[in-house]
């Protein structure tokens, strides 16, 4: 498990989005226009990592990163985590047996 603060994650996402933008040869203004976000919004995102979710998703759609985001949040059925009811049921699976009082 990766231990990273939300702020550091925002900054890292902004850095990676900028790298992808540059790799695709887009200017900030060009990407902002294609994504349907304002230029100041994109500039602020790249500098600080702060952006609304909808604007972030519109940018990532243009940068061909939207599918990766959706895959990242897809539920993983192979996870070792269980629901609390499953944990309780497994610990109570074998009831204690007592002898009769005869």
Concise synopsis of the structure shown:
With 102 residues, this protein is mainly alpha-helical. Helices cover 60% and strands 0% of the residues. The chain is built from 6 helices and no strands.
Record keyword descriptors for this entry.
Cro/C1-type_HTH; 434 Repressor (Amino-terminal Domain); Helix-turn-helix transcriptional regulator; 60% helix; mainly alpha; rod-shaped; DNA binding; Lambda_DNA-bd_dom_sf; 102 residues; 6 helices
**CATH architecture level-2 label:** Orthogonal Bundle
Number of domains: 1
Q: Biggest sheet, in brief?
A: none
Average pLDDT confidence is 87
Identify the CATH class. Mainly Alpha
Shape: rod-shaped
What is the percent of helical residues? 55-70%
CATH fold-level assignment: 434 Repressor (Amino-terminal Domain)
Strand content: under 5%
Class from helix and strand fractions: mainly alpha
SS element count, helices: 6
Low-confidence stretches: none
Number of strands: 0
Specify Rg, calculated over alpha carbons: 24 Å
The CATH fourth-level homologous superfamily:
lambda repressor-like DNA-binding domains
Give the CA-CA distance, first to last residue: 56 Å
Order of helices and strands: HHHHHH
Protein name: Helix-turn-helix transcriptional regulator
GO molecular function, one term: DNA binding
Domain HTH cro/C1-type: 18-70
Pfam family, one: HTH_3
